[in-house]
Amino acid sequence: MAHEPQNDWNPLNEESLRDQRQAYDEMRERCPVAHSKLMGWSLFRHEDIAAVLADPQTYSNVSQFMAIPNGLDPPVHQQYREALDNNFESEQMSKLEPQARKIAADIFESVLVADEVEMVAAFANPFTMKTLCALLGWPENQWQYFDRWVQDSLKASFNSDSAAGKKLANDFSEQVKNNLKKRRTSPSERGDATDSLMNTVVNKVQLDDDQIVSVLRNWVAGQGTVAASLSILFMHIAQNKALQNQLRSNPALIPAAIEEILRVDGPLVFNPRTTTKDVKIQGRLIPKGEHIALMWISGNRDPRAFDQANVLNVERNNVDTLVWGQGAHVCQGAPLARLEMRVAIEEMLLKTKLVELGKKAPRRAVHPSNGLSELYLRFS
What we know:
The chain is globular, with a radius of gyration of 21 Å. The protein is 50% helix and 12% strand. It has a 5-stranded mixed β-sheet, with helices on both faces. It has a 3-stranded antiparallel β-sheet with strand order 4-14-11. Strands 5-6 form a two-stranded antiparallel ribbon. The protein has a single domain (68-267, 304-379), classed as CATH 1.10.630.10. α5 (90-111) runs parallel beside α14 and α7 (143-158) packs antiparallel against α8 (162-185). The protein is α+β, with helices and mostly antiparallel strands. The N and C termini lie far apart (65 Å). It contains 14 helices and 14 strands.
């Protein structure tokens, strides 16, 4: 009978949930490879996370359920990824940008009339999901379904509620398939991502509806991460007047500021892997078939990888950032995410003279998220 490893920490204790960044910083120094009942083996150091990302043969990303392409390993993963890459190429992003900018501008026009605005519900969530609807060529009002689905999925994950998770998966599948059915009843080449997905071929076989559902589940979850990122970005810009003035005077720095803020204060807590053989990391033996959690927040704040790691410096060379992952599974939707975040910040700064935190303090989301659940801002 296999020996059950001793638990080194509890990701859901009060201290960890109160401030995930501080808790993970401490774990990185105290116990860089830590076991817990909830997450298996958590890796907190940049070098260990990067080593796992560089070795997909030893650390598998295959999902228990269909997850295209992120839940596949090379070489199959690469085949699907290459077939889907065209949805995020520069030509598609250039086509989408005016639509995304109008969505952002329209939302800001409606919210700036208030004294204080709760930006997660008023901007971050609708903007990201409406932009996804624009990419897909779907009715804009479907953003509310996607937003609710992301929030309910996070809740089911936090509560380990498999029944709720299964129902959410079935509901999502029905929602997507209804949209595909409508598109087929009025076939016309629109040049949007839905057309692209319905015509995607891998190994001479066209994607079926279940595979498209899997792809879009990944995309919608990704938009939830973009919304969380926006809440973090807006908070830092509002509370750091020097940074805000710097971006107002030199908007060309906005992309670099996005990368640096999210390195210091990332939206993603972790991603899982599974060992395909016995491995040793930082002197600890991890058997084959064990779950590993790559702790993005901690890795991106590791002083061994970044000088003055907890200091925000928009001129930093972030070539080693883990914000988008690394290796074979580097975030495929990064061009879309970067576009949305840049456009949102540009429009906010364009339409205001000053952005400040509201009277109510920002409230952090909790594991498995790390954005904000509430962010009140004042504009002038």
